[in-house]
């Protein structure tokens, strides 16, 4: 190796070491490492908190030779030797981007009393990355919560909009579930379990993963032939009955369904509420002064009526007593 090559190598190493001595540049490196294309991490519990950790050796391996498919940021110098990577990892510990931990069991970590970086140790991430998006989402969540709590004072057009959106979503889900069930039933009769959007209602998956795969199809379990025959007979019998009905009956059924959906959108499906109550839905549920005075007057009238009835009753009792005394005197 010539002297020029040695000098050039030393110069690039010096430039790299001086670059990562800046804390802001280390943050950029941590943003990359904590991103989707960064080094793979594992989850554990440390001090009653869920954390991500990585072994020192794997972190150095990733810095020297990133995993396949990872795109190294063009604004960050690459690491050519393990010694350079170890030096930067020590800076990560020194600036408290990571700290060393000890394993007490599977998925259980405790803060280590050793602070230096070592490839054989485990290191927990303390740096959580850029929190701007998280703060924005938290703000939107709080704002959305407050917006929903103010529903009683929303303008009427917003309430109507929410009502139409809710009803439309409910009808869409109903028809989607019915469509999935009918498709499954048709193909299950032929001996296959076929689902459209099989993970749609899987609560353990994320929103995007709930729509993957679009269709799943596999052979049904053995021993279901009698059930499939019974379901096929019942299903096709229902279809035959529906086809052989007079057109007027089908039209009336179709018209009833359209009226049902129209009533749902209009809010007239359950007509227990009077029109006056619907119009006064935004008014406070408190009695006005006039209503209170009317209630007091009605109570006074009831008391007067009760007192009059009591007087009449006492007079009748008095007459009965006098009549009994009169008969006793005659005897």
How would you describe this protein?
Helix content is 57%, strand content 11%. With 331 residues, the protein is α+β, with helices and mostly antiparallel strands. The strands form two sheets. It has a five-stranded mixed β-barrel. The protein has a two-stranded antiparallel sheet with strand order 6-7. The longest helix has 42 residues, at 289-330. The radius of gyration is 40 Å and the shape is extended. The chain starts with a helix and ends with a helix.
In short:
It is built from ten helices and seven strands. The chain has 331 residues and is an alpha+beta fold.
Question: What is the first-to-last residue Cα distance?
Answer: 152 Å
> Which sequence of SSEs, written as H and E, runs from N to C?
HHEEHHEEEHHEEHHHH
Q: How many strands in all?
A: 7
Helix fraction, binned, reads: 55-70%
Structural class: alpha+beta
In which order are the strands of the major sheet placed? 1-2-5-3-4
- Shape annotation: extended
Overall mean pLDDT score? 78
User: Nearest-angstrom radius of gyration?
Assistant: 40 Å
What are the segments in which pLDDT stays under 50 over at least 5 consecutive residues? 1-12
